[in-house]
Write a structure and sequence with these properties.
Rossmann fold; NADPH-cytochrome p450 Reductase, Chain A, domain 3; Elongation Factor Tu (Ef-tu), domain 3; 4 domains; 34% helix; globular; binds flavin mononucleotide
């Protein structure tokens, strides 16, 4: 079968496209692509932004695997494609046959929006679907939909390319369990054979230097750093496997991803680095800036539930941006964790500092730019060591566990029968190191690990400053909660970026902003292209309603600073001008802010600034919701409660004055409650039927009068 030239004389074309933000759609689409190749298709695999590599109207079948991000938005590696799709006219894709696998999460309002939009648009353009769309839900487990969808894709394709002899020779997808086992064994054996011939060996302990220099000469600082950071050991994750014995047969085991990646040794001094020391393979969607840390302030006292800090970054070039924009930071994995992982994989410090190149047909897109980097940097910056594992990875680790008990447990967790144990394991947020520590007999080639770990993602923060303020084009401020928490059994967890930034910034205590003695290290930042237009209306007379509890208030602090600057300029102009004097407020619409905290004394972020803006007339109304204090005057528990109290005024601002509504913060709880409250306001004060109110909000969202920036 797979790859056998004799039984597969001619294959048809299959192009698999993906749009992926955090790697799920990319790895699932690669799996489909690899299976297609094994089944004799001439297949291709591209990110949607590379859509031009394929003549869509000539291809036989197109498979799209697309996730949804943000607030129903398409992933970054498909935005160019969407612009292209918008420009297409008429029914220009009548020959194209397609199917879509959407990935999403029902905890978000716009479940699988990208898949649904793509389907509608392709239909409009005359393309025809050859196999029903699948929508997989991360809330219940993607596999539930993904596995059967892929399994049934093949007979659907066979039907499409009925003239292709190759397809008839292949085992039909509806197999008996006995047949399935035989097929799996063959695939497993083939993979083992391929691994043995292709899997790269671990790096030699010493490497000859072609130019006569010590290979580690250039990286002495890194080595010093290594010596300063003891490797983490990892936690042993305790899971109850007592029910395992009840299941003799394991079903729905995910397929082990193909081994494609090879690691080639290079000379150490060929490692290219951007000054300021970040690896050249990091690719950002806009210009990378190496920023200084100008200012740091801790906004919450030590008895607050969360530690919130505000950081101002500075850079030399002027950058065009608007209040409401966000920027990305490319943070490394925690150094002790990286050291722990390398140590668990028996990679010596010298080997970790050696330059390598990653290559191989069909390797994940985030690894294709790794042409010259140390293993240390690959584990720091290219792969994600902290996201909970996917089933396919657990299955892979099972294959490489030498101890029978480890193998059985891992295989069980990868199966349908072990779903409870798998979920309990993931709920502990195990790092890759924890997995190695919990199942110590896993002995897996380095290349397999690098290619199967998810890609590292930059972290995004809303800009809280205005480009109109002093030096505004050369600085961005942001505010965030430092993500660290403890689980039972003494397990300590931390986010990737926020604790790193907090530690770099010196973990300043609550109080005034600190501007001296800060780190001299430069940090990689870049502007996030703003696709949602979460910006102030261009007509300054239009009112804005801002809803942002907690750190969701961040972009609104930028809006307010911007408006304060606009008012100042207008005031000066009015004072010099000779025309009729107008009141300042005639030029600027109302600004309403709904903010929420637990305790006014502990987590009322930006209190001083908010009160100053209110006093100066920049902020028309400040509506404060306090959830954990009794009897706060004019206050309710949550922002949606405050909105209910102000329902009539909100309706008037929207209806009579054309206000824009902005919501920023938690997508799952707050944004849903705020959305429901807006529906109620339209019903109670605007006289809408409930259904009509929901449709009206949808229209406003399309017209960018109801904007949401959610996480
Ligand atoms: C910040 C964020 C926003 C998301 N927004 C949505 C959404 O609006 N609708 C949805 O159905 N899923 C949403 N999801 C869920 C993802 O689509 C889902 O986790 C998917 O598996 C990610 O696939 P990817 O790794 O290929 O991007 C969101 C996930 C994140 C992390």
């Amino acid at each position: 079968m797979a790859g056998n030239e004799n039984t597969v004389p001619q294959a048809d074309h299959l192009t698999v496209f993906f749009a992926s933000q955090t790697g799920n759609a990319e790895s699932i689409s690669r799996n489909i692509y690899e299976q297609a190749q094994e089944r004799g298709f001439k297949s291709f695999h591209y990110a949607l932004n590379d859509h031009a590599k394929v003549d869509w109207d000539k291809e036989d079948c197109l498979v799209f695997v697309v996730s949804t991000t943000g607030d129903g938005d398409p992933p970054d590696n498909s935005t160019k494609f969407w612009r292209h799709l918008r420009k297409l006219k008429g029914v220009g894709l009548t020959k194209a046959k397609y199917t879509i696998l959407g990935l999403g999460d029902t905890n978000y309002d716009n479940f699988c929006q990208t898949a649904k939009r793509l389907d509608t648009r392709l239909q409009e353009l005359g393309a025809s679907s050859f196999y029903p769309r699948g929508l997989a839900d991360d809330a219940t487990g993607l596999e539930e939909t993904v596995d059967p969808w892929i399994k049934n894709l093949w007979p659907a394709l066979a039907h499409q390319v009925i003239s292709t002899p190759a397809i008839h020779d292949l085992p039909q997808p509806h197999l008996t369990s006995e047949e399935e086992k035989v097929v799996k064994d063959i695939i497993f054996k083939q993979e083992q054979d391929r691994k043995q011939s292709a899997s790269p060996k671990l790096l030699p302990k010493t490497a000859p230097a072609a130019n006569g220099r010590d290979p580690i000469e250039n990286t002495i600082d890194d080595l010093k750093n290594l010596a300063l950071t003891p490797p983490a050991i990892g936690y042993k994750i305790d899971i109850d496997f007592s029910t395992m014995a009840n299941h003799a047969n394991l079903t729905a085991l995910p397929r082990v991803p193909n081994a494609n990646l090879q690691i080639a040794d290079l000379e150490a001094d060929t490692v290219s680095r951007i000054p300021g020391s970040i690896p050249a393979f990091i690719q950002t969607p806009s210009k990378l800036l190496m920023a200084t840390v100008n200012k740091v302030q801790c906004l919450t006292p030590s008895d607050a539930l969360k530690r919130t800090i505000a950081v101002e970054f500075g850079f030399e070039d002027d950058v065009e941006y608007a209040p409401g924009d966000a920027f990305g930071i490319w943070a490394p994995n925690n150094e002790a964790l990286v050291r722990g992982v390398l140590s668990a994989l028996n990679v010596s410090d010298t080997a970790a500092m050696k330059a390598v190149r990653l290559h191989g047909e069909g390797i994940p897109s985030h690894l294709q730019s790794v042409q010259s980097a140390t293993l240390l940097d690959i584990f720091r910056y290219a792969v994600d060591l902290t996201s909970p594992p996917k089933k396919a990875n657990i299955r892979l680790y099972a294959e490489h566990a030498s101890d029978l008990a480890d193998k059985q447990k891992l295989m069980f967790m990868a199966s349908k029968q072990g779903a409870d144990q798998f979920n309990a394991f993931r709920a502990q947020s195990p790092t890759f190191l924890d997995i190695m520590h919990t199942f110590p007999s896993i002995n897996i080639p380095l290349a397999r690990i690098i290619e199967t770990l998810p890609p590292m993602q930059p972290r995004y923060y809303s800009i809280t400053s205005s480009p109109m303020s002093k030096n505004g084009h050369r600085r961005w401020s942001c505010a965030f909660n430092v993500v660290t928490y403890d689980l039972s059994g003494g397990v300590h967890r931390r986010g990737v970026c926020t604790p790193w930034l907090d530690e770099l910034a010196g973990q300043v205590p609550f109080g005034k902003a600190v501007t001296t003695g800060l780190t001299t290290q430069r940090l990689p930042v870049f502007l996030k292209p703003n696709e949602t237009r979460f910006n102030l209306p261009s007509d300054t007379t239009k009112p804005v309603i801002m809803i942002g509890p907690g750190t969701g208030v961040a972009p609104f602090m930028g809006f307010l600073e911007h408006r304060a600057e606009q008012r100042l300029i207008k005031k000066r102009l009015v004072n010099i001008g000779s025309g009729p004097r107008q009141h300042l407020d005639d030029h600027f619409g109302d600004m309403w802010l709904f903010f929420g905290c637990r305790h006014r004394e502990r987590d009322w972020l930006f209190r001083e600034q908010m009160e100053t803006y209110k006093r100066d007339g920049v902020l028309t109304e400040l509506q404060l919701a306090v959830s954990r204090e009794e009897n706060v005057p004019n206050s309710a528990k949550y922002v949606q409660d405050m909105m209910r109290n102000q329902g009539k005024s909100i309706w008037n601002l929207i209806h009579k004055k054309g206000a824009t509504i902005y919501v920023c913060g938690d997508a799952k709880g707050m944004a849903k409650a705020v959305h429901d409250e807006l529906v109620s306001i339209l019903v109670d004060h605007g006289g809408y039927e409930k259904m009509a109110a929901i449709m009206e909000l949808n229209t406003w969202a399309q017209e960018k009068r109801y904007l949401r920036d959610l996480v």
